[in-house]
Amino acid sequence: MPADDVSLLLFSASAATVLGHNFPFYMQFNGGKGTATVIGVLLALDWRFGLIGFALLVVVALVTDFLVFGVLMLYVTLIALALWTEGYWPIVIAIILFVLAVWKHVENFQRIKEGSEKRVLAVLKKK
Questions:
Q1: Any idea what DSSP says for residue 24?
Q2: Which pLDDT value is given to residue 1?
Q3: Is 66 helix (H, G, I), strand (E, B) or coil?
């Protein structure tokens, strides 16, 4: 099987995993936002990118004090991994997943704009 086909297969399976998490049929298609799933996908596709993505999630979330920006870095890491692989379909799939993540986090962006989004450090100080 050519490398392009393998890349397409891996990224398609990854997208299916994220979509299955975000839109489970047994929950009336109302699931999560895919954060933990994308960490798992990155670790499964290439553990180095998985570790980089997780590190970026933590660092960006702490620096910006908003988790949503760290989450978006996971998807940027997925796009970087797609650029690293052969073929253009992985890039297309990764960009679609990024757009989906932005859409799933619109409420978070609204709360940031309104000033009501929970801050990372405030949550950490509580515990």
A1: -
A2: 60
A3: coil
HSE-CB of 95 using CA atoms within 13 angstroms: 6
Instruction: Measure the CA–CA gap between 70 and 23, rounded to whole angstroms.
Output: 22
Distance of CA 120 to the CA centre of its chain: 18
DSSP 115: T
> Which are the contacts of 115, defined by CB distance < 8 A and separation ≥ 6?
none
Give residue 121's pLDDT band: very low, low, confident or very high (50, 70, 90): confident
- Locus of tokens 């996971």: 74
Q: For 19-34, how does the pLDDT look when each residue is reduced to its tens digit (9 = 90+)?
A: 998 888 888 777 788 8
The whole-model pTM stands at 0.89
The vertex-107 CA angle with 102 and 35, nearest 5°, equals: 50
What token pair was written down for 41? 């996908």
